[in-house]
Amino acid sequence: MKSLLVVKICTLFFIMLLISRADGAATNIWTQSAESEFDKGITQNVSIHSTGEMRLSPKTEAVTGVKSAFVWSMASGLQNQVFIGTGDPGTVYCIKNGSEAVELFKSPELYIQSLICDKHGNLYAGTSPRGIIYKINNRGEAAVFCSLPAAYIWDMAVDSDSNLFAATGNEGMLFKISPEGVPSVFFDSPETNLLDILLDQYNNVYAGTEPNGLVYKITPSGAAQVLYDANEGEIHSIVMDLSGNIYAGTASGAQVQVPAAPAAQLVAQAGVVTPFSKEERAWDLNLPGELPMAQPATMAQQRPSSREAEAPPRTTGIPMAPNYVYKITKEGLARKIFETSQAFILGISLDTQDNLYVVTGNRSGVYKVSKDETSSSLADVEEVQVLCCLNTGNEELYVGTGNVGKVYKISPAFVKEGAFISNVLDTTTISDWGCIYWEAAQPEGTNATLATRSGNCEKPDHTWSSWSAPYQSSGDRITSAPARFIQYKATLQTTNNDTTPAINMVSLSYLPKNQPPKIVNFTIEKEPSSSQKPAEVKADGKTEAKPQTPAVQKPHHQIAQKNIQWDVEDPNNDSLQLTIHFKGVDEKTWKVIDKNTQKKGAYAWDTLRLPDGKYQVRLIASDEPDNPPETALTAESIMQPVVIDNTRPVIKSMNTAMGTDCRYVISGTIKDEYSNIIKVQYTIDGQDWTSAYPVDGVFDSQEEPFQITTKHLAPGDYTMVVNAFDSEGNIGVEKVMFEVK
Questions:
Q1: Domain 60-414, what architecture?
Q2: Residue ranges of the domains in the chain?
Q3: Which secondary structure element, helix H or strand E, spans residue 168, and what is its range?
Q4: Torsion sign (Cα): 727, 731, 737, 741
Q5: Chain segment 377-415, per-residue pLDDT in tens
Q6: What residue ranges of the chain have pLDDT lower than 50?
Q7: CA–CA separation, 35 vs 48, rounded Å?
Q8: Which residues, other chains included, contact 103 with Cβ-Cβ below 8 Å and sequence gap of 6+?
């Protein structure tokens, strides 16, 4: 034990040391030690506990002989006999020797929804969708006991005076039926369904409801109170422990439904009650003292003919929120002791030690909640629904399933061997493997070993390596081939059915192969060199064009700054060294502009003192800070040539000529060595600035002839100033004077 503690402390220290280094070159550790992590794997005769342990599962055996689609209900007899109620067809079986289901009674009904035994050994079977209750005596003779005006007899219980209580739907009524089969309404609830009931030693009745998720307590006098109101809409199952605590399982969300018989089919028959209003409280059934044995041929004729009514139950959706088991004290104080997601809690039961067992549907499962409120999975079943469960006096658990009706017996003894296969770890790239560690308790006669396999596709297939030879000791080096994906398998074994090994932590180390950085973006931001005011809107909604004025220009030293931007990633999350260079297109030597370690950033490159011309700009990203020189990798990106132009355009060959109607014509040519001309404006005697256009109508070259024709001018001397703008924000200026006679 001391050596195991030392290994655990050293392992945790090693993990913390590695995590404290936020660089990609460090060895990575993949650890699983919690229930949520182990739940991602595949279990084979292995149970996962809420404490984060995996252990061997108890022995699970299939009971043969069930020939129905659903096993809806279970009950135990006086000698630990186990009875099961099924559908379709509605059949009652008795399990012989814990291994074979023998047909006891085949009813003409669709479903045996509930079963209960009284203290005399009589078995009662509640059916749906016509609400008939059959009584099967201890000689196996069956007869109609009574029929209730309800579609579903969800659950039944027997009090100390052999009165039978039946929880029904869809009118949410609780019936009390005398030993002679005379029913009366004991509690008329406002709920749609009373789904599950139990009686305590004082004959108080507790009922779980739908759609408001209530737990009622109804005294022997019929006085009812709400013991608990859950947030969930359905209390599907309730049980009581030896201390009087109630456990309530919820099943909120669309789930398995039993079809109801059409109203027209609820007809009066011998020993059957005609439908009645909810206001009625009791009536005389005039039942004969001895009811005949139910004859399948005769009763089958009374089965609803509607195909809709005969449709098999089906799952119509999944829960949108978790479902819970609540532990409710006598005072109504409740707290959650078990949670399941995407599943309905469809059955719960208690063993003689007050351990709780929970079965779920939609996401089928069988779980044990111990008295200390730790939980574990017990068995994996292939069926979609686990609908009911029953503990026997000899500590065996029976569970019934739907969407293939089966019964399984779960014994307290452990299986001899089980395996757990983890989910697949994606290391994102080819990785070298280190060592595998695990923590395990291995009592005498038990053993736990691990193995690994690896591959380069996410789903293991024939291209993956075979499972390695078992690693015998924690800390063994992983022998699987380097790859991107890896998976481990834990094998648990015992030679003693009363003990099991337990694994509570598995970790493995890996070092991803170094990958080069990736340059996502490397650009120079272009800023507009000029702007134009928009037209103003008058009060009447019309727009008024304003004379153009020279655009507000940034100072030239700001225009000459080029905003270099970059965004670099590294697959290994390495720290990077980024270096930005430049050179003229006709030069050979790169010059450094900037060095930094920011993976995403910007740099203002001052080009004011550089000669005009075309330049190349390069970014080199290296992961050398986190890798030795011999394995360090780089990425490089070179921009398209960048124009550096700090010289004004030249306005030349200015000519003036008198036009017609006192208009003057001024023409000339604008030329720039490196940049395109983008705008020409002029003003006469300092008045409003007016745009001029090139002769060809489009500014798209470094040399643009232009022509300006003035408006009608009065005789006199005039001075015209012409501005020419290039794409780099440089402004050329020229002046011309002329006289209008």
A1: 7 Propeller (2.130)
A2: 2-57+417-512, 60-414, 518-644, 650-740
A3: strand 164-169
A4: positive
A5: 998 888 989 999 999 988 899 999 998 899 999 998 999
A6: 1-24, 259-316, 528-552
A7: 7
A8: 65, 91, 92, 93
